[in-house]
Amino acid sequence: MTDTILNLSASERERILAKSALFDPPGIALADGRRELVGLTREELAIEMAAIGEKPFRAKQLWHWIYHQGATDFSRMSSIARPLQERLAEHFVVGRPVIATQQTSVDDTHKFLFRFRDGQEAETVYIPDRFEDRGAVCISSQVGCTLSCRFCHTGTQKLARNLGAAEIVGQFMAARDAYGEWPSPRGDTPRLLSTIVLMGMGEPLYNYANVAKAMRIVMDGEGIALSRRRITLSTSGVVPMMDRAGDELGVNLAVSLHAVRDDLRDELVPLNRKYPIAELIAACRRYPAASNARRITFEYVMLKGVNDTEADAHELVRLIAGIPAKVNLIPFNPWPGSAYETSTRAAIDRFARIVMDAGFASPIRDPRGRDILAACGQLRTESQRVR
Ligand code: SAH
Ligand code: SF4
Description:
Blueprint: H1 2-21, E1 35-36, H2 42-51, H3 57-68, H4 82-91, E2 92-93, E3 98-104, E4 110-115, E5 121-128, E6 135-138, E7 142-143, E8 161-162, H5 165-178, E9 193-198, H6 208-219, E10 231-235, H7 239-248, E11 252-256, H8 262-268, H9 277-285, E12 296-302, H10 310-319, E13 325-331, H11 345-357
Parallel strand pairs: 1-2, 6-9, 9-10, 10-11, 11-12, 12-13
Antiparallel strand pairs: 3-4, 4-5, 5-6, 7-8
The structure holds S-adenosyl-L-homocysteine and iron/sulfur cluster.
Iron/sulfur cluster binds next to loops.
């Protein structure tokens, strides 16, 4: 029985990977023939060096300049002799997504609209902590989303395409440029841009290969060197890929639960019809990176009169009993045309109390950047599928 399930999910995994390849981002070659170095693995970088007759140690040197120093200009790479700097510039670029527009909220949340090489656009949000000098960068994984959760603005935008590894890590690098945060510190010295949450546009586990590649780059100790503890991946519940992300990346997991009964979750998060609550919770129970020190976050959007009763709260704690978890209650963030209302504060408090009494932390998420449509679930761009 277990074997059958494992086999099934393996083939399902292949199917998901093959399907997402249809939405591939542009390759690394630019129109002028030069090649993008951001987003390559160390091995791929060494292959690019070999292609111009350079030794593998050049890849290590470049890695340091690109990901530790944040250099985009070969002439700044002072450990490389001038003639080689010039040759590198003939063959390669170290690019960034371009800031098409940016806005700052009254609460200092900052939203970037990034434009990529083919003109597609996605949003990235920097959310500074209210009390300390640090913050989270909320990164997009896709332009649009194939899923259409009823309460989510991104879900009203059809998937235009997946973002490539260069574009995913590039959002973080461009945000660091904007905040003047290079070079990367040695060790764990605090920075403003100190954590990554994969909670922007798109479903990261439907673009797993690119997300994984980008996160490996971000975690590499000789570059940006962000610990896996400082990265949280949020999924609407792509069960077969959750196992893989846990095994291979070991980042923190956030799961968009939002309902405790299949009939309601089928409606709010249509992916539930494929991976119902029982399967989703089972995948959380076996998520390898979860422990008391690193709990799974269950995200629960509070929708007035829809999922916010005391009975819902009791059922929630029954479902997640025994999982090292916390429950993040997210007051619904409205967007133009949205069909829901935010639960009353009293209903949210009541819900939080029940969850807390059962032994789970249940923070109520402070809505940030609502005035500039930068809060959870408010992101959307005009980009459409071109091919
Ligand atoms: N696709 C992934 C990550 C992006 S969404 C996912 O669904 O998990 C990040 C979080 O914002 C998710 O928990 C999502 O359900 C929530 N969200 C979406 N729309 C929202 C809205 N209008 N108000 C509050 N939270 C919302
Ligand atoms: Fe996609 Fe997540 Fe929005 Fe659902 S909540 S539509 S999975 S981005």
